[in-house]
Write a structure and sequence with these properties.
The complex is a heterodimer of chains A (333) and B (269). Chain A is an all-alpha fold and 333 residues long. Chain A has 17 helices and four strands. The radius of gyration of chain A is 28 Å and the shape is globular. The relative contact order of chain A is 0.10. By secondary structure, chain B is mostly helical. Chain B has one domain: MetI-like fold. The radius of gyration of chain B is 23 Å and the shape is globular. The chains are: A mainly alpha (333), B mainly alpha (269). Chains A and B meet through helix 4, helix 6, helix 7, helix 8 and helix 9 of A and helix 1, helix 2, helix 4, helix 5 and helix 6 of B.
């Protein structure tokens, strides 16, 4: 990276015949083919080492940043008749999703996009809290246990992560559906149920189950690192086990908690499959709305504007979160 | 035993609650496998009887087998591409210093943070606008982008623990740069690379959300077929297919883990 910049900056701009003269003077023709080959190889080696990191950066620039920039541009264009994109700058899409109110049953209700965005954030928060409360227990257990089965128990947390997501969500249809396991079990106690699908409960249950490993593993890592002696000395100084937990273990496991929480929140808010498979129309989330707008209404500019607002809101939230805890915990260094 | 655990009652409660959570994590998947052997038309619980008919109908369906093959091809291709790009970039990031290194390395994690719906939409809009078709290449490019962070992070973790004096020793003994890389560096970081590529394969193999924007009828993948079946008609065929996919994504890594004894799965966590 720095190499190419140096030559860019240091090169003198030559014009006209000068340019050709310079090229001939420095060319391999004058220096002789052997010298030229050596110089070429040397330069290639330097280029090779300089571009190692550049390869990954270039990949993301071309296949992630450029597409995102294109979508940003699209969001300021407009869908013309027949789904054709009209390349005229307009704020119409943003006006439609942020300011325009939608009437439902003749009542002037608030904006449908904002309702759905809010709903996604709410479901994301619910999922994060539930995952944290539930995930702390096995995370703590795995971090503290001296069982010789710990490796296997850790494997069992990781393995569901290897099962295709679609299967993990689908599995809940079999459990929560109207002929599913939950109904069958309730039936044993003489309780009637028409299943639990197509509800917020089903969506959050599916999300919690799918995202639990993302919470358990960082918490396990944090708890595992805590020196037993800290907890011990807290107790010798008279702290009750509960107090020792609150004053020592919990604060020291905070890095794991924050890493797990931010990951779970981000993944839950952007989920497409949980609401699509386990939720009803009332549980539509922002990923589903973007998909519908892009794939079914073929309104690419509007879908792009929705994606942009979602990204801005999400990154604003991450930035706020980052101010308090620091994201390095999530990715390590 | 640590003092905190000496209160065995409290510890028993934690153990019991953890057990319940394991049940919560694993039970739904066990249900899928159990119901795949049902002889009835509708996947109900508990299964009544035993039959392999849904496996027979899966292997008799050209459409589903094609989807399975497509998934295998795309996942293998993406694991290789992400493996090469991830390995080279991790080498560059760990061993070289350059400006804005932190910002640039977070660029490589970006696909983990952005919803696959947005990545799916953006890549489709961008690449079709410059005239690219929705073919295998698009799928492999897209999937490689999605899984690159996982390869990058596992290889990078391995490189942090790498002792560079090994390379110096090889160089002083007369090995050139390429020989050193192939005979010293690569074997040492191989467990990390293998774990990352395995994870890349598994994630690509099961990817649905972004993939739905990238397929054409000929390139439909297994997760897309499952989604279509779930949305149209719930047949026990889904369970048979799901069980086969789980055997591939869980069974193969587990077998490799046991055979090679390299803790590949734990490494990928």
């Amino acid at each position: 990276m720095s190499d190419s910049r140096a030559t860019d900056g240091g090169e003198v701009r030559r014009t006209g015949i000068d340019r050709y003269r310079h090229r001939i003077r420095t060319s391999t023709l004058r220096a002789g083919p052997a010298l030229g080959a050596i110089r070429f190889l040397k330069r290639r080696k330097r280029l090779l080492t300089a571009t190692q990191a550049g390869l990954g950066i270039a990949w993301m620039a071309v296949f992630l940043l450029a597409p995102l920039l294109y979508v940003l541009t699209l969001s300021f264009w407009q869908r013309g008749p027949g789904g054709v994109v009209v390349q005229e700058l307009t704020l119409g899409n943003y006006h439609e999703i942020l300011l325009q109110n939608v009437a439902i049953f003749g009542l002037e209700v608030s904006n449908i996009y904002l309702i759905i965005l809010w709903q996604s954030l709410k479901i994301g928060l619910l999922t994060t809290v539930a995952t944290l409360v539930l995930g702390y227990i096995p995370g703590y257990f795995l971090g503290r246990t001296e069982s010789r089965y710990r490796t296997i128990l850790l494997l069992l947390v990781i393995l569901p992560f290897w099962v295709p997501l679609i299967i993990r969500y689908y599995a809940w249809i079999l459990v929560l559906g109207n002929q599913g396991m939950a109904t069958a079990i309730l039936g044993l106690f003489g309780l009637e149920s028409g299943g639990f699908l197509y509800s917020e409960l089903a969506v959050v249950t599916g999300l919690v189950q799918v995202l639990l490993p993302f919470m358990i593993l960082p918490i396990y890592n944090s708890v595992n690192k805590i020196d037993d002696e800290y907890v011990e000395s807290a107790k010798t100084m008279g702290a009750s086990p509960l107090r020792a937990f609150y004053e020592v273990t919990l604060p020291l496991s905070l890095p794991g908690i924050s890493a797990g929480s931010i990951l779970v929140f981000i993944l839950a808010v952007g989920s497409f499959m949980a609401p699509a498979l386990l939720g009803g129309p009332a549980q539509t989330m922002v990923a589903n709305l973007i998909t519908q707008t892009f794939g079914q209404s073929f309104d690419w500019p509007l879908a792009s504007a929705m994606a942009m607002v979602y990204l801005v809101v999400l990154f604003a939230l991450i930035t706020v979160f980052n101010r308090f805890v620091g994201l390095e915990e999530v990715f390590g260094e | 035993m640590t003092p905190l655990l000496s209160d065995s009652r409290r510890w028993q409660a934690i153990k019991g609650a953890s057990g319940l959570l394991y049940l919560f994590l694993l039970l739904p998947l066990i249900v899928v496998v159990l119901i795949s052997f049902t002889p009835t038309q509708y996947p109900n619980f508990p299964p009544r009887g035993f039959s392999l008919q849904w496996y027979a109908s899966f292997f008799g369906s050209e459409r589903l087998l094609d989807a399975l093959v497509n998934s295998l091809v795309v996942a293998a291709g993406s694991a290789v591409v992400a493996g090469v790009v991830g390995l080279i970039s991790a080498l560059g990031f760990v061993r070289r210093d350059f400006e804005y290194k932190n910002v640039l390395s977070s660029l490589l994690f970006l696909p983990m943070l952005i919803s696959p719906v947005v990545i799916g939409v953006a890549l489709t809009a961008f690449l079709t606008s410059i005239g690219m078709e929705k073919n295998y290449l698009l799928l492999i490019i897209g999937h490689s982008t999605l899984v690159l962070p996982y390869v990058f992070v596992t290889v990078r973790a391995q490189l942090f623990g790498f002792d560079r004096s090994l390379e110096e020793a090889a160089r002083t003994m007369g090995a050139n740069e390429l020989e050193t890389f192939v005979e010293v560096t690569l074997p040492t970081i191989m467990p990390g690379l293998a774990a990352g590529m395995l994870l890349a394969f598994v994630i690509s193999f099961g990817e649905f959300t972004a993939t739905q924007f990238w397929i054409q009828p000929e390139t439909v993948t297994a997760p897309i077929e499952i989604y279509t079946m779930v949305r149209t008609s719930l047949t026990p065929e889904i369970n048979a297919m799901a069980t086969i996919l789980m055997v591939i994504t869980v069974g193969i890594p587990l077998a490799l883990d046991v055979l090679l004894g390299k803790n590949l799965i734990l490494r990928s966590a």
